[in-house]
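My current task is to audit a protein record that another person submitted. My question to you is simply how this chain folds and whether the tokens agree. This is what I was given:
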Amino acid sequence: MKKVKALVLAGNGINCEMEMAHACKLAGADAADIVYIYDLLSGDVKLDDYHFLNLPGGFLDGDDLGSAKAMAHRLKYARIAGSGERLEETVLRFIREGKLILGVCNGFQLMVKSGLIPALGKTYGTQTVTLTFNDSGRFEDRWVYLKVNADSPSIFTRGLKGLYLPVRHGEGKFIPRDEGILAELARKNLIALQYSDPEYKNPTMDYPLNPNGAVSAVAGICDETGRLFGLMPHPEAYLYFVNHPRWTREKVPEEGMGLALFRNAVDYIRKNL
């Protein structure tokens, strides 16, 4: 049976790496290594040795220049010691080999600002959407309802109808470069998650159900392969029933909703890579 190896990025202000690594292991990954950014840049750890790249939440580089912007430049231009290969080139090879990338919150911001998603026409490296300051003008820490697009190619959301997950961000408002980009995302079903009503039926622009004012209530998008996925809510923060904010007052399933995304990823890797 295929052994699944996940890499969880850490360092420079990332702060959810332990929860994300635990989610990968809980979902069945054989290894979930927490790797510091500079261990990749030094060449001590090679991305090629892994199947599943996890980009966790946090405040990369203190969100200087905007959330994840500094790391997006590092990803694009920093070179790996010894080989001289740009870090971006290793990521692009990772993608070409059919492997998976998940970005949560700050990791989602990194993915869009480095052009890894939505990568329309499979043109990776060109930014066409962004995530910026919440309409509320403040940090939002609350739980949200998410409508899942059943027609999305996203591997991570397969078989799911709705999700209830926490958000915690100051820059989560999704904005496309123009209406044409938004229309293409919709036409190709790359909008995998939208903030919704509690029944998971209708996307909403109403605050606080939509915590940031995201255009078209976008909470998560994928690339055209469905193997690269980013979202603002934190699936790794809802793995057990005790993570639910009302677990002492309501009967909730023992397994948290967030685990399904990681299990879908691990199952896909085991069957296809």
Summary: The mean pLDDT is 98. Residues 54 and 117 are 14 Å apart (CA to CA). The chain is about 25% helix and 20% strand. Helices lie at 17-26, 37-41, 69-77, 87-96, 106-113, 179-187, 259-272.
